[in-house]
Amino acid sequence: MKMSKNAVRILVFAGLALVVFNVIAFVVPFARGATFWAAYIFGMIAIISQLAVMKLAFNGTESIRSKFYGFPVARIGVIYGICQILLSFAAMALSPFIPMWIPMIIFIVMLAAAAAGMIGADMVREEIEHQDKKLVKDVSNMRELQSKISLIVSQADCGEELKSALAKLGEDIKYSDPVSNPATEKIENELLISIDELQKAVIEGEEAAALALCRKISGTLAERNRLCKLNKNTK
Questions:
Q1: Which of 69, 177, 195, 213 could form a disulfide with 125 if both were Cys (CB 3.0 to 4.6 A apart)?
Q2: 225: containing domain
Q3: Same domain, yes or no: 147 and 173
């Protein structure tokens, strides 16, 4: 399977980091006792884990917005990786003077804190994406109404009274609360049906029926706005 450019970049970055880390670890004459090997293992974990971190942060996301929300996850992973590598080299340099358990405790706490931070950041991202999708869904009915009334106005070849009524209806829909809620679902379905009837009346030149539908839709829209306001006041 062909990898994306971002995946290739991440692999190249991780590969270079591994090479540099290993060259420094084994070319510099560190005392290679238990502390050295503990520092080495956790340094390798920090580098290799960046692959999983970047996959969690960016791979499989559906939009630029979703990728943007992945940056906090990636930032925590990168900060952990840099801090761990620096501390690994410090522990290697001081390995003759410090017991293994001191850096081990520090490394484990750092890893646990980074993992907890990334999980938390990913949970926040999922919630934000859920709310974004919910908002798009919640405004879809009113967007559809706006689209339909705009089309009707553009199609209208009628008298001034009906043109004025259609224009006013378009303004009323445009400036109505765009967010739906369970209390307004039924009335919005009625609005959509009435708008379809209005479009048919306009196309067929039935101006009297179209005017009556404009008045009906305006009343239904006013009732919807009342329900929206009532729903907000009860929260």
A1: 69
A2: 140-233
A3: yes
